[in-house]
Amino acid sequence: MAKHIQGREEAMVRQVARLPESPRNHCTPILDLILAPDSEGGSIMIMPFFLPAHQPLFETVGELLEFFRQMFEGVQFMHEHRFAHGDCTLENFAMSSAEMYPHGFFPFHHEKSRSFRRNISPHGTRTSSWPRYYIIDFDRSCHFPFEQSEPARNDRIATQRTPGRNPFPHDVHYLGQILKNRFLEVRYMAFVSLHAYVMV
């Protein structure tokens, strides 16, 4: 996957890329950063080929819990290194695709083959081959040096979302909102299969 980044997001991506390797680091792997043509500026970020974190649907409660375990772990790891994501929405989490689609799929259409000529189905489930989840999109992220003792502030955080502008509790608040609004309340259960919903 490739994404054009520039300005603040490019600066944050370059800092995130320097985070130490760890099983708890769920920031998207950056395979390469290529300078964009002069007319565009910025860089082209090369990432692995991901699936949206919620597609295909979660089949069991255990699959959903594992997703949240990894996401809380990843955000905690960022916070320990004084990075705040700033936009922890469901759309900014991704899932490795090799486990469920070892032969690939057409971009943005995981139900189609790479040639787009035939329909395909996942090769197993999350439970049979646990995927790894990743945090993506750092255009609202911020970093605060360890020596900064005053309360952290991020002016890009809208005050109507959460009280104050401290980005660290903001991240945790939004993770909780994903769980509450997108999975626990019935009207948002579109991302969970009927089987998993019955188990809840």
Compute the number of structural domains. Answer: 1
Portion in beta strands: 5-15%
Q: Compute the separation of the termini in Å.
A: 35 Å
Strands side by side in the biggest sheet: 1-3-2
**How many strands?**
8
What's the helix-strand series?
EHEEEHEEEEHH
- Overall 3D shape: globular
- Low-confidence segments: 194-200
CATH architecture: Orthogonal Bundle
Sheet of most strands: 3 strands, antiparallel
Which structural category do the helix and sheet elements fall into?
A: alpha+beta
Q: Helix fraction?
A: 25-40%
Question: What integer is the average pLDDT?
Answer: 81
Main CATH class:
Mainly Alpha
How many helices? The count is: 4
The CATH topology assignment is Transferase(Phosphotransferase), domain 1
Radius of gyration: 18 Å
Organism: Cylindrobasidium torrendii FP15055 ss-10
Protein name: Protein kinase domain-containing protein
Would you write up a description of this structure?
There is one protein chain. This protein is an alpha+beta fold and 200 residues long. It has a single domain, classed as Transferase(Phosphotransferase), domain 1 (Orthogonal Bundle). It contains four helices and eight strands; from the N terminus they run E-H-E-E-E-H-E-E-E-E-H-H. The protein has a three-stranded antiparallel sheet with strand order 1-3-2. It has a three-stranded antiparallel sheet with strand order 4-6-7. A hairpin with a 7-residue loop joins strand 2 and strand 3. Helix 2 packs antiparallel against helix 3. The longest helix has 20 residues. The protein is globular and about 55 Å long. The C terminus is likely disordered.
